[in-house]
Design a protein that fits this description.
With about 180 residues, the chain is mainly β. The protein has one domain: Hexapeptide repeat proteins (UDP N-Acetylglucosamine Acyltransferase, domain 1). β19 and β20 form a beta hairpin. Bound molecules: coenzyme A (COA). Coenzyme A binds next to β19.
């Protein structure tokens, strides 16, 4: 049984390396993803963790819901309050989720030694699309069905179905206007 499974995996991997697979979704967690502190990472079996994703979760949990996708090269730092990603969420390549900050108020010691702070968790509700190269800071909730435009920095809550963009991100429009 185990050797059949191994053979199948080797076959699929070889086809993947040769670019012969029509879809990327043969895997759940791509072999190049680096998931540190695995005990703090809760992935629904139907979610997709793409190539070169990095998760560091030493002190708080990353939770990913059904059918959600963590795009290639995206990085997740769970800080002290954690990151929750709902169902059917699409996270494009090269996004950073920083649920904590370096303590930068003290100037008597290097920031590297000053520890970390977090104002609150990052929560991404269901059916959100986050464009490429976005950064999401701590204490941010992105409401159901929202869209974050490419290259945005989201440092405040986003209302459900809003489309936001820019640095810092502000409202561009609402998906509700199109219905
Ligand atoms: C947000 C997005 C979906 C909007 O697309 P759209 O509905 O076609 O909207 P438009 O291009 O007509 O832009 C609407 C307004 O938003 C602004 N806008 C679009 N993208 C923006 C961005 N990344 N940052 C800031 N403003 C942006 C436009 O300038 C325009 O403003 P205006 O009305 O004042 O001229 C699209 O711009 C985007 O960022 N897509 C993400 C693509 C991506 O990252 N893909 C990764 C692979 S899935």
């Amino acid at each position: 049984m185990l050797s059949r499974l191994k053979k199948r995996m080797r076959y699929l991997y070889t086809r993947y390396v040769r670019n012969e697979l029509p879809s990327i979704s043969w895997y759940h967690v791509h072999p190049t993803a680096l998931l540190y502190n695995r005990d703090n990472i809760q992935l629904d079996p139907s979610c997709l963790v793409c190539e070169y994703v990095i998760v560091r979760a030493p002190a708080a949990v990353l939770k990913v819901g059904m059918h959600s996708q963590l795009g290639p090269f995206s990085v997740f730092f769970t800080g002290d309050n954690g990151i929750t990603i709902g169902n059917d969420v699409m996270i494009s390549p090269h996004c950073v989720f920083a649920a904590g900050n370096h303590e930068h108020r003290r100037i008597d010691i290097p920031m590297m030694q000053a520890g970390s702070v977090s104002k609150g968790p990052i929560v991404i509700e269901d059916d959100v699309w986050i464009g490429a190269n976005c950064t999401i800071t701590d204490n941010v909730r992105i409401g159901k069905g929202a869209v974050v435009a490419a290259n945005s920095v989201v440092n405040k809550n986003v209302e459900p179905y809003d489309i936001v963009g820019g640095v810092p991100a502000s409202k561009i429009s609402s998906r509700l206007n199109n219905t």
